[in-house]
Amino acid sequence: MKSIQTVRLAVGVAIIAASMSAWSQGSETASAPAMAASGSAAPATGRKANRALRRQVYSAIVKQKEISAGNISVVAKDGAVTLNGTVTDPAQVNRVAEIAKGVPGVTSVTNKLTVQKPLGGM
């Protein structure tokens, strides 16, 4: 009885080890073409760089007290930033775009912001 449990445990460990090995090989081969395509000389591209740029733009918008950034979303891809959402004042549409353009690393801004109409208003 004890030998059956030992064999089951050994088989389970072998399956887990094989799965981990296959999983790690899959991620290495998946990242190799990406590194070859982007080259090592361009560290400013990729998901991490896009996320970092998005955070920097959003942080710059949030610092402006007159702008309610809660309804603004920022999408960044290789320096191109897209602004979506709503603002409370028509002047803020262009102001938010100017703030985004001033963030280092931003190469272009697509402004899709709209003015939010007040509730109950016409």
From TrEMBL:
Annotated stretches, region: Disordered = 28-49
Which Pfam family is an annotated match for this chain, by its short name? Answer: BON
Q: Which UniProt keywords apply?
A: Signal
Residue spans of biased composition, Low complexity class: 29-46
Signal sequence, start to end: 1-24
Write down the PROSITE patterns for this protein, in alphabetical order.
Answer: BON (PS50914)
Asked whether the UniProt record includes Signal among its keywords, one would answer yes
Domain spans labelled BON: 49-117
Q: What is this protein called?
A: BON domain-containing protein
Record the organism. Answer: Paraburkholderia metrosideri
